[in-house]
# Entry
Amino acid sequence: MKANMRKHLARVLLISALVGLFLPNARAENDIGDLINEGISLYRQRRYIEAREALEKAVSAAKEPDVYYLLGNTYYMLGQTTKSKDAYRDTLELDPQYMPALQNLGRLLYKEKKYKECIGVFDRVLAKDVTDIDAIRFQAGCYHALNETSMATQKFLQVHRLDPDDSETIRILARLYKNSWDYSKAIPFYEKLISIEPDEPRHHLSLSMAYYKLGENEQALDILQRGHKHIPEDYDIASRLGDMLFLDKNYSEAVAIYRKALLIRPESKDVPVCLAKIYSVQKELNSLRSQLECWNAGMLECWTRSEACAHIGLSGMKTIRKMILFGLLSPTFHHSNIPLFHVRGKNPGLGNLLYFQ
# Structure
């Protein structure tokens, strides 16, 4: 951007010299060349109000695209975006192929959320240079804002081909494919994100989810195991690895991972529910009692003990009688057979195991 500005300032200086050459008898205060030189100098000094005054006088006498362009930049620096757009349009009336004016006009239109007009402006840029990556990026952003997902994806793919290592574009493409439930196309982008940013937990979680949605549970589990090994301090990876081990009925490993997750985040309300569910499945009554006592200490304040037991799937009158004897259930407890995986968002502790629904 700065290089382009220096180039165009040089062009303006050349114009001012030519104007001075052809108007040798003009008075100094009205000399257009002097006004242009003054405007350039003031602009470089960031004295934009004074630069604007000099350049406005200059364009009233010399209809030169470079001067209009510099005036447009000056308006922009003063926050006068409407006047800035008008100056860029005046530039383009004099020179329709003036690329910096087209690009700056497109940026302003994007900022003002005039997406369709912005796309049209950048079409003109791309008509001259089909590899202008900034123009393609702005068009991709416009289509995305207009919810035209197919066109947005096409444009972001063009950006990716021109700049294959740009992590932001890779992230956007992964998200676009995931949101379109096209997980097989999302996977290569999540894999690339992991290679670029291996310490970002979200990439491991998203890649695992994509494989899970495709029914490739072993691959999903493997991704989480490798992610946990690489980022052992991340709670989300640990807890979701526990979920996958639980779903795989690998209860002993699931318990070990859930306990690690609790060490990372002792205040977790999700993990105790998962541990209690495992203890109930394995009929480990003492462990289950201990876990429920943790809840009674305040880990799940908004649940009653009977609600907690119902939603972790306790079944059988023998188990219920024992829980009443231990004082963990009230005698008025009414058992519910609602399976944990089928209760979505009803209680605060269910979020963890429902992640893979």
